[in-house]
Amino acid sequence: MELIEAFDAGLEEFGRRVHQVGPGQWTAGTPCTEWSVRDLVNHLTSEHLWAPWLLRGATLTEVGDRFDGDVLGDEPVAAWDKAVAESEPAFHRPGALESEVYTSGGLLGAGEYAWQMTTDLAVHAWDLARGIGADDTLDEDLAATVYGYIEPQAKAWQGAGVFAPPVKVPASAPVQDRLMGLLGRRP
Predict the structure, then answer these.
(1) Helix, strand, or coil (residue 107)
(2) Which one of 13, 38, 133, 167 has the minimum C-beta count within 10 Å?
(3) Once rounded to an integer, what is the mean pLDDT over residues 126-134?
């Protein structure tokens, strides 16, 4: 699966689960122990509000604090949909993944940024599904693609505190389970 296909699959997986959140589920816990369902959706919605700006070359200072705090308001699903309506075309713009973007970690290739966003979409789709009691099965090609991307660098990401320490999963387990275990989740 190519990067942009994986990104689109991640958007689909996460977005489908956002649309499954029931009225009483926004305060439910998730495998991200510090985040409720609302916190998790807010995190990804904020990331997708940032994306068009960063892909146009804006610096962190230029974006400022406009996407800090609660970006979901009274209509979390609509807020997610609006963020994606701007984020998706920004990633698909010709040449968008060949530029560089400013991130909190410094200047980063836009392709690498897209991989990080895709990873976040996939793993948090699983987290969200677990939080709301929905089917947590990810697109198998997406899980395999993200696993192939993240596996060589997982230790560095864990060392930086991006993901929890890995959870042991048998090598014969499905790729989704190996991905979640690698990222500190218990499949």
Answers:
(1) strand
(2) 133
(3) 97
